[in-house]
Amino acid sequence: MHWTLREVPLLEQALHGLLFVAILGLTVGLYRQELTLTVGGLGVLAVAGGLDEFVYHRGIPPEETDTHAKEHLVLFIFVATGLCTWLAGT
After folding, report:
1. What is the model's pTM?
2. For residue 63, what pLDDT band results from cuts at 50, 70 and 90?
3. How far are the Cα atoms of 9, 30, 35, 83 from residue 87, in angstroms, in the given order?
4. What is the DSSP string of 7-46?
5. Which residues 6+ apart lie within 8 Å of 6 measured at CB?
6. For the chain, what are the domain ranges?
């Protein structure tokens, strides 16, 4: 979507790469039940995600906003499922 609706600056692309690494760390930490990796991934996700939202995602096209909101929902469901699995002890 980025390439068809708007030009994405190189710094935003790098931030998205950092977000990918944070989500990967968070995911691995959740499903391996490693607290340090989980909290670290969540911390980087919060900071990098906040920067991405407040710097680059203000005033984006409506089509991208809709897709972006759905991506957030899927990520939330995925993390919530991982946390529930961890807390359930399975």
Report:
1. 0.81
2. confident
3. 40, 10, 12, 6
4. PPPHHHHHHHHHHHHHHHHHHHHHHHT-HHHHHHHHHHHH
5. 60, 61, 64
6. 2-88
